[in-house]
Amino acid sequence: MRIGSACSQPIGADSAQFLARWGEINDAVNKIVLKYNGSISAEHGIGKLKRDSLPKVKDPVALELMRGLKRMLDPNGILNPGKVL
């Protein structure tokens, strides 16, 4: 099972082994990205895979701003349920 093209599971790799190290690899990549003031996500936003990582890498004020914008634009929570924004 491939999570998505962004995660780049090698062709022919064992999915269970790849997914077992997903968190470890993701944390290592995020650490490097943040060291250079990058972002863990770009034009695709934060989905289900990165939702739990967001509080570890974003300022609480930025998080609340994102949540506020989502509430303002989607007060009934019907657009992209489970996504941050």
Protein model, in words:
- The chain is mainly α.
- Helix content is 45%, strand content 0%.
- It is built from 4 helices and no strands.
- The chain is globular.
Summarize the structure.
The chain has 85 residues and is mainly alpha-helical.
Q: How confident overall, as mean pLDDT? A: 80
Strand content: under 5%
Derived from helix and strand composition plus strand pairing, the structural class reads mainly alpha
Query: How far apart are the first and last residues' alpha carbons, in Å?
Result: 26 Å
Rounded to an integer in angstroms, the radius of gyration calculated over CA atoms is 15 Å
- Please describe the biggest sheet, giving its number of strands, its sense, and whether it closes into a barrel: none
The total of beta strands comes to 0
The ordered H/E elements are HHHH
Q: What general form does the structure show?
A: globular
Portion of residues in helices?
Answer: 40-55%
DSSP summary: helix tally: 4
Q: Please mark out the parts with pLDDT under 50 across 5 or more consecutive residues, or reply none.
A: 1-6
Topology record:
Layout (H helix, E strand, L loop, with lengths): L14 H6 L1 H14 L18 H4 L2 H14 L12
